[in-house]
Specification:
It contains eleven helices and ten strands. By secondary structure, the protein is of the alpha/beta class. The chain has one domain: Rossmann fold, CATH 3.40.50.300. The strands form two sheets. The chain has a six-stranded mixed beta sheet, sandwiched between helices. A four-stranded antiparallel beta sheet has the order 2-1-4-5, with helices on one face. The radius of gyration is 20 Å and the shape is globular.
Length: 283
């Protein structure tokens, strides 16, 4: 079932000047994609490729210069629908400190539902559910500023969950975290998608994170370069490298071994797949 549809999206930040449709000042150009309800999508690209701009279109933070973005059939350009769209799509930013507004964790998570006018009893239920969903319930009375980076990001995610969105868009949620924090947040994202059926759109430049998605969209200079399953996308090593993009380290290693004459018929995505493949080849 389709949940998000992007049709021929063009966008530029400076709308004060007239420009032809294919002016180089457009950050996004002729971008189209669809995302199904319950899917886990990764959007990857190098810095400045436009992937974060895509994220901000998904909850009407930005409106297309040309083209359309539909969320569950609702046109993001229709200002009368903005509130409904943002209830369905929650956006988690790169820096969790930008989303933490209260002095106690549970009060921070309650902030969104309170602004929606939810009854206090239901807010209590939502806050408890959200904190348990991200494994932060035991920290509900702690001060957010005393938490680690990974814990802060999980609290920020809980704040979105408490608003009961159908979709969570995460704009490079692990970029500012250490390896432990990254693992915590990624486990949380995976759990929300698999166990709670929440549609996840994760913007990232870490290819190792993208491999856990159902599908991957690769953005380069504001255009859709390629898309497909992780296997389909990361098997196109030459294409990605021509556009200054990386592939997972396990894929890179086996790609280089194959170029040296080692008989490798498929490229792995993860370290475990790589170890199993090399064990098979060496045997």
């Amino acid at each position: 079932m389709e949940f998000i549809r992007i049709e021929d999206l063009w966008f530029r930040y400076d709308e004060s000047e007239e420009a032809p449709a294919k002016d180089e000042r457009y950050v996004l150009e002729n971008l189209s994609m669809t995302i199904g309800k319950g899917e886990f999508i990764a959007v990857v690209g190098h810095n400045g490729s436009g992937k974060s701009t895509v994220a901000k279109h998904l909850n009407a933070m930005l409106i297309p210069s040309m083209g359309k973005v539909y969320i569950d059939g609702m046109d993001t350009a229709d200002e009368s629908l903005t509130f409904d769209i943002r209830r369905r799509v929650g956006l988690v930013l790169q820096n969790p400190d930008n989303q933490l507004v209260a002095g106690i964790v549970e009060e921070d998570v309650a902030f969104g539902p309170e602004n929606l006018g939810i009854e206090p009893a239901e807010i209590r239920e939502r806050v408890d559910f959200a904190l348990k969903a991200v494994d932060m319930y035991d920290y509900r009375l702690k001060a957010p500023h005393k938490l680690s980076g990974g814990q802060k990001q999980r609290v920020a995610i809980a704040g979105i969950i408490a608003m009961k969105p159908d979709c969570i868009v995460l704009d490079e949620p692990t970029a500012m975290l250490d390896p432990k924090g990254r693992a915590e947040v990624l486990d949380t994202i995976r759990k929300l998608n698999r166990e709670n059926g929440i549609t996840v759109v994760m913007i990232t430049h870490y290819m190792e994170e993208a491999v856990m998605a159902d599908r991957v969209f690769v953005i380069d200079d504001g255009k859709l370069l390629t898309s497909g399953t992780p296997d389909e996308v990361f098997s196109q090593v030459e294409l990605l490298k021509r556009h200054r993009l990386d592939v997972p380290q396990a894929t890179e290693l086996c790609y280089k071994l194959r170029a040296c004459g080692v008989n490798i018929d498929r490229l792995p995505l993860t370290e475990d797949e790589c170890c199993a493949l090399l064990k098979e080849v060496l045997a």
